[in-house]
């Protein structure tokens, strides 16, 4: 068990990549703090993990709200006494082309995907500095590296996450804290499953493996980067995209 006794906080943990990551971390022995907007949904994931013998605390919080994030950290520390790993997985899309994108669409995506990552990481980093150890892992995207049609807001947010990752790696390394990001390609989640079959086939064709990724593919990457096997890796972006952007 590569994460035995490690305390890991995962935002956006009730479904998709977040849920798969929670399951993977539980199987590797981590103690979990699962965070999402809806308590009933995060409780469902928590209950599954507990039934499988895992240790889990489910909490409701909006990562864009700094007061809620502060309370999240306090509750986590009161329950476990430490936070070893943070995975900033919470994120949304609200797509539109440049000339059609509303100010509300821009603000909401930047608020969740960029400010939310900042809020959680800043609060957790203060704990990790006191501990003199920790790992922060951020969800970026291949569109944060290469852009995408109709995703000005999402691409900007995910590109910003990469630059925050590299900046924090430089700042926090002296405190024994590693910071990395994962840039997923097209993953088979509820969001992607809603697109027309013709579009899905086009997306698959962009991968040299000719398939969508599974949430577990990303979860495995997070588990590696969180573990001591990656103890000399910081400030990097791991593409997990099936060769979509070689």
UniProtKB/TrEMBL annotation:
Where, by residue number, does the polypeptide cross the bilayer? none
Q: Which PROSITE patterns match?
A: ADH_SHORT (PS00061)
Q: Pinpoint the Ketoreductase domain residues.
A: 6-185
Tell me its EC number(s), please: 1.1.1.100
Protein origin, superkingdom: Bacteria
Output the InterPro entries linked to this UniProt entry. 3oxo_ACP_reduc (IPR011284), KR_dom (IPR057326), NAD(P)-bd_dom_sf (IPR036291), Sc_DH/Rdtase_CS (IPR020904), SDR_fam (IPR002347)
User: Any idea which UniProt keywords this protein has?
Assistant: Fatty acid biosynthesis, Fatty acid metabolism, Lipid biosynthesis, Lipid metabolism, NADP, Oxidoreductase
Extract one GO BP annotation from the record. Answer: fatty acid biosynthetic process
List of catalytic residues: 154
Task: Give the function comment from the record.
Answer: Catalyzes the NADPH-dependent reduction of beta-ketoacyl-ACP substrates to beta-hydroxyacyl-ACP products, the first reductive step in the elongation cycle of fatty acid biosynthesis.
Family designation: Belongs to the short-chain dehydrogenases/reductases (SDR) family.
Name of the protein described by the UniProt record: 3-oxoacyl-[acyl-carrier-protein] reductase
